[in-house]
Amino acid sequence: xxxxxxxxxxxxxxxxxxxxxxxxxxxxxxxxxxxxxxxxxxxxxxxxxxxxxxxxxxxxxxxxxxxxxxxxxxxxxxxxxxxxxxxxxxxxxxxxxxxxxxxxxxxxxxxxxxxxxxxxxxxxxxx
Length: 127
Description:
Blueprint: H1 3-28, H2 36-39, H3 58-88, H4 97-120
Helix pairs in contact: 3-4
């Protein structure tokens, strides 16, 4: 098989699995008509007060997005620190330690520059 045939095979396999899951959910779901009580919003057993569709400020979403970005970057930082630590103890060979430290420094600099930019723009203020 060529590499394109493998790619097409996995593309169709992914589409078939997603379609199969949707079809199974449609076939296995209950078909009883829903009452207005069943369609009401559920808030921990308490009756709802006011409209259930409330708009949130964009700042909340921006704060959550920044959290995810910095969280993922921090997760990416752990393997790099472990690799540099192993290199400093002489367990890794082939790549100079100074190059690894420089790459790690650039990574941390980009992380801190992004944090400083978000802070300066006021994206981290929770009003």
